[in-house]
């Protein structure tokens, strides 16, 4: 691989979705649509799809379905030589029922005992994994899987940090997953675990609610902009942070959202917002969401795509790209970002028309 590689680490699963907006009881028995999904894998696929060097690290069982999973990643251009194949564990699953109007999406996880959740950190060749890396990305989903996966995440961050690699953490709190240390409540276990990781993170990705629930950082009651206030408090608590990114979603219904984002640049104490029109934030209106899963990962990938570029420090452009990528991700079925860099850049520049491209 060439230099300037982004490494991501996490679980990749099979996603089984009901057709259209059918409920589980309507679709089963019957046919479910299978795709592969996983937050860190989605980020890697997006980065490779946009022309970058991306390497995905995980563990998968040694069977034909996992082979198909690896091939799917390679089709995007993702480097997969650090995906361990093991006789232990399984390929995780999750089931999706797509909501509509006032009925929300439903997700059922079936991922206990997944290979990546039980494979120890010592099984990975960290020197090889980070040999060409300039950026490492992980989400809070990975340490939520098991105590072993939490140790894996902590080891990976230490290895990346010791090499001076930029580290982004997308909090992605999933209350259904943080259950490996009873009697601690999921939010308590997540807080205890993620607070140990935060001193190694350089780019924080997460919402104001995440900062409050997991890091005990709250906006002042009279803050002019609560999101900016929280970003500044994060930077004060964790001085190694260089950027704080937040995707901002206002849900109108299950298939209608307003979408925007914020990126705080710590060195200059500058906060960027997008999209902006005539000096004001004007969120993208997405009234007919095709699939909202993966939009946050597209946003994260957009931030990384620009900031990890050679010599790039254009935070404003990084945010515009990320918001546009996340917006377009809502238009494509599946978690992976089947949206080109040219399409993202066109939306960045204001081309939101639905005219047929001829």
Structure description:
By secondary structure, the chain is α/β, with parallel strands linked by helices. The chain has helices at 24-27, 39-49, 64-76, 115-118, 126-129, 141-144, 147-162, 186-197, 208-215, 226-237, 295-307, 315-329, 341-348, and strands spanning 5-9, 13-17, 33-37, 53-61, 83-86, 93-97, 106-110, 133-139, 166-170, 203-205, 243-253, 256-265, 270-274, 276-277, 280-281, 284-286. The strands form 3 sheets. Strands 1, 4, 5, 8, 9, 10, 11, 12, 13 and 16 form a 10-stranded mixed sheet that branches. The chain starts with a strand and ends in a 10-residue tail after the last helix.
Named CATH architecture: 3-Layer(aba) Sandwich
Helical amount among residues, as a percent range? 25-40%
CATH 4th-level superfamily: Ribokinase
Shape: globular
**Largest sheet features:** 10 strands, mixed
Average pLDDT: 93
- Per CATH, the class reads Alpha Beta
Distance between the termini: 36 Å
| Low-pLDDT stretches | none
Whole-angstrom Rg: 19 Å
User: What is the strand tally?
Assistant: 16
Compile the SSE list and pairings.
Layout: E1 5-9, E2 13-17, H1 24-27, E3 33-37, H2 39-49, E4 53-61, H3 64-76, E5 83-86, E6 93-97, E7 106-110, H4 115-118, H5 126-129, E8 133-139, H6 141-144, H7 147-162, E9 166-170, H8 186-197, E10 203-205, H9 208-215, H10 226-237, E11 243-253, E12 256-265, E13 270-274, E14 276-277, E15 280-281, E16 284-286, H11 295-307, H12 315-329, H13 341-348
Parallel strand pairs: 1-4, 1-8, 2-6, 4-5, 8-9, 9-10, 10-11
Antiparallel strand pairs: 2-3, 6-7, 11-12, 12-13, 12-16, 14-15
Helix pairs in contact: 2-11, 11-12, 12-13
